[in-house]
Amino acid sequence: MIEKGIIKKKLKEFEIVSYIEEVLDKPGYSHTEMQRTPLGEKIIVHTSKPGLIVGRKGESIRKLTEILKKKFGLENPQIEVSEVTNPNLNPHSVAKYIAHTFQKFGPGRFKFLGYKLLGDIMNAGAKGAEIVISGRGVPSTRSRTWRFHAGHLKKSGDISENFIKRGYAIAHLKSGAIGVKISILTPDIVLPDDIEVFPNEVQVEEVTEKETQEKVIEEVESQVEKQEEKEHPKESQEEKKAIKEKETAEKEIKEEVKEKKKSTKEKPQEKITKLPIKEEEKLKKPKKEEKVPTAQELAEKKKKKDGNNKKE
Predict the structure, then answer these.
(1) Whole-structure pTM value
(2) Is 117 helix (H, G, I), strand (E, B) or coil?
(3) Which residues make Cβ contacts (< 8 Å) with residue 9, sequence separation at least 6?
(4) Which residues have CB under 8 Å from 154's CB, separation 6+?
């Protein structure tokens, strides 16, 4: 008894959805969903052009609600219109578009239409897509089914059953009926065999010469301490402290001696720098000009010398 009740409910839902598809078979229409709530039945109409379905001031929706109450016995049907943001990734809207074009312009250019819509689906960001056009109305002598596919599309497994979006539509023509099947693998689906390889980021740190010297000194000291511990493992902590204090005192004494030597070396350098300054001052002083003796003066000097010699 329970199974029969479930089957009746599903058949009723199918009749309601098919009736709505016939009434709202307009460009932009995608598909309908039916949900049961405590307040009543909730019907969601998906479309890329909500203005055509709502009508002027919601007249078409009001008429549809009245028909659903009278024909199907729904107590409080609530109709909502949701807009499809990207119709190229919605298989129902793509299939309806192909069916409407066949009904308007005929199936003469079905290959051009198939490849064009396939390119639009892939440009919208889909990972894979497939369009199958089949039926008696297809104008071809070789085969009655044409398949247009691109990208990567799963045919079996959990992803093909639960994640791939599928849609279909039927175009009724004079030459015969044409069925359109669309299957799209949207970009938000993560495949189990997708592997991302991240590059190894090498962090480069700038190290100065002082830091390198300090690190080397620390490493050497740590190695020396380890060796000393191995050689003298029984030494107490007090002895180690005394040894360290002695070493620090010796280092301080050596540093003081070096500073004294530097101070003694710097003092004579100051004297040496002053000496050339005095020499330059002496050189800068003008020397007294020596007078050159004339011929008369030289003759007089000779006479004086001769007179002195005679007296002697």
Answers:
(1) 0.57
(2) helix
(3) none
(4) 128, 160, 164, 185, 191
Tell me the three state secondary structure of residue 294.
coil
Please identify which residue in the block is written with the tokens 């369009």: 131
CA distances to 17, 54, 65 from 35, rounded to whole Å, are 11, 20, 15
**Architecture field, domain 2-84:** 2-Layer Sandwich (3.30)
Alpha carbons 90 and 183: distance in angstroms, whole number: 9
Please state, rounded to an integer, the average pLDDT across all residues of the chain: 80
Q: What is the pLDDT of residue 118?
A: 93
How far apart (Å, rounded) are the C-alpha atoms in residues 35 and 6? 15
The residue to which tokens 């049961």 are assigned? 36
How far apart CA 211 and CA 195 sit, in angstroms, is 42
Spatial neighbors of 144 by CB under 8 A, at least 6 apart, are: 134, 135, 136, 138
- Which pLDDT belongs to residue 271? 44
Please report the pLDDT score of residue 270 as a whole number: 45
Quick check: 118 and 150 in contact, CB under 8 A?
yes
Position 33: which residue type? E
The CATH number assigned to the domain with range 88-185 reads 3.30.1140.32
Alpha helices by DSSP H, listed for the chain, are 2-23, 50-54, 59-72, 91-105, 110-123, 158-162, 209-231, 237-284, 295-311
CB count within 10 Å of CB 190 equals: 8
Q: Using the Cα atoms of residue 217, residue 219, residue 222 and residue 226 in order, give the sign of their dihedral.
A: negative
Dihedral of the CA atoms 289, 290, 296, 301 (nearest 10)?
150
Q: CA-CA distance, 186 to 168, in Å (whole number)?
A: 17
130 within 8 A of 182, measured Cβ to Cβ? yes
> What tokens does 277 get?
């300054």
Residues of the chain whose pLDDT is less than 50?
268-275
Predicted pLDDT at 275: 44
Q: What is the pLDDT of residue 108?
A: 86
